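Quick one: structure for this chain?
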Amino acid sequence: MSKIERFEDIEAWQTARELTQAVYGISNEGAFGRDFGLRDQIRRAAVSIMSNIAEGFERGGDKEFMQFLAQAKGSSGEVRAQLYVALDIGFIDQPTFDRLSDMATRINRMLSGLMKYLRTSDLKGSKYK
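Got it. Here's what it folds into:
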């Protein structure tokens, strides 16, 4: 694993940023934009992925970082669940669902890999460098 000096260096955070941009884009349109409950919830969940990765990294300890990565994974699952709702009620089409769901799934895989690395690394307690 290459040296991580800032949370912005974490690939999962970068992909979560792309997902958040896409979620904001689709949830601005049509009926989705007027369904304030679903719109706001999926946006909060997407932002939560990025935020938890960043906050956990900045706290500086591997145990806390792992907890925040687990929260980010949960938020990614929440985005996927809400994408199903949006698909089922016709707010998004199947290709949009597939693209965003795949992105969220990739984030989860990256987070799982990072968590595994942290559990088995010799860097216990260090700043992940």
